[in-house]
Amino acid sequence: MTKVKKSKVKHKQIGDPDFAKFSSVAEKMCMKPFPNLAKNDSSPHSDFIAEIADGLRSIEHMENYLELGVNHCLTFNVVAPYAKVAYAVDKHKHPEREIKASNAKWFFMTSQAFLNQTTEKFDLIFIDANHDASMVYKDIKGSMKVLTDIGIIVAHDTYPGNPWYADVQHCGSAYEAIWRIRKECPNYEVMTFPFYCGMTIIRKTSAKPLWMVLAMELRECEVQKKQESYN
Fold first, then answer.
1. Could you give the C-alpha distances from 110 to 4, 117, 118, in angstroms and in order?
2. How many structural domains comprise the chain?
3. In angstroms, what is the C-alpha Rg of the chain?
4. Domain for residue 170, yes or no?
5. Does residue 183 fall inside a structural domain?
6. Domain span including residue 110
7. Does residue 229 belong to any structural domain of this protein?
8. Domain harbouring 72, CATH code
9. Closest to 145 (Cα-Cα) out of 73, 213, 66, 45
10. Are strands 147-156 and 188-193 parallel, antiparallel or unpaired?
């Protein structure tokens, strides 16, 4: 039997000649903590969410903004000014002193505790708290109950670009919650953008202007009449 020599290059069996180099870099990136963003004014995904907030404000649907898991408030402080009232929720105490928005309301508690007690409705909800799939799922389901008819939910860390970013210190298993939501919630549109570690937009499929609903119903009636005339 011919003895097969073991490759000195780890992961060479994947078939991609650059994979070994990539995996080495990825491993180092995963082991290193993310840079301290607290000194910056925003996070990489702040502008993405701010664009959504600005769009909702342009159609006069940006009354209340809710952020679950605000950490250093880098995103919260950017998005909050687009709303009339902005709600910051975190189970850690330190974010309170980093909130800059004058329209902010601070809640020192878990996401679930807030969602279970609030009586408000929100036009935009950003979920970036616990990254465990079961907790993200609960945050999304709870957010659906307090979302306005035309509101939008944005979940972060839902598309880890490689296995190392699925580590609990980074994106965790949040992406699994999105798979489950897609299967269980056919009345919601779900789209994940593969950047900034994954940004998933969730909204009600029924969130259409009345004229559009009526136009679609009228078109269906016309199609039905044509089919009947052929018969």
1. 55, 11, 12
2. 1
3. 22
4. yes
5. yes
6. 39-210
7. no
8. 3.40.50.150
9. 66
10. unpaired
**Residue type, position 77, single letter:** N
- Closest of 133, 124, 187, 140 to residue 160, by C-alpha: 133
Give bridge partners of residue 125 from the DSSP assignment.
Answer: 66, 153
Q: What is the pLDDT along the chain (231 residues), one digit of tens a residue?
A: 444 444 343 333 334 444 344 344 444 433 333 343 334 566 778 999 999 999 999 999 999 999 999 999 999 999 999 999 999 999 999 989 999 999 999 999 999 999 999 999 999 999 999 999 999 999 999 999 999 999 999 999 999 888 888 887 788 999 999 999 999 999 999 999 998 889 999 999 876 777 777 788 888 888 888 787 776
**Is residue 222 one of the residues assigned to a domain?**
no
Q: DSSP labels for 134-153?
A: HHHHHHHHHHHHTEEEEEEE
Amino acid 184 reads E
